[in-house]
Design a protein that fits this description.
With 147 residues, this protein is α+β, with helices and mostly antiparallel strands. It has one domain (32-140): Cytochrome P460 (Chalcone isomerase, 3-Layer(bba) Sandwich), CATH 3.50.70. The chain is 17% helix and 22% strand. The chain contains two helices and six strands; from the N terminus they run H-E-E-E-E-E-E-H. It has a six-stranded antiparallel β-sheet, with helices on one face.
Length: 147
Amino acid sequence: MTRYIALALAATLACFASGAAGRPAKDGLPSYVDSYSAWTKVNRKPIAGGSPAHAGTKNVYVSKRQRGTRYPVGTIVVKTATQPGRRWLSLVATMRRIKGAANGGWRWEEFTRSSSSQRFSKIDFPESGCAACHMQAKSNDYVFTRR
């Protein structure tokens, strides 16, 4: 039993040391999105327009590929947006598939900034608001994309 506790503690400490616990990076984004631009890009060309919640030109990246019609547990989806007339990201929205989570296993977070020199700040918006909209894409595992 003591060995099990020691192993669990070591794994927890390793998780925190590696940043997997979601610590904010220097730009204000959580560490779990580090290197998202090297992940698989879901859309072939940038997505223009969209809802007021996610206006601008967007790109969507996934950390893991779909298995059949669903993304596996541990998948992270990152959507970035650049506002019209600007050349810097103003929005980074995330979806993380977590075992046992509601809404198909997805958790949502959104980060914004109003200038290229600012750090991103997390929006305090209820996750249920994201889920209500993403429910429209339930047949695509809650992920909106246009290829």
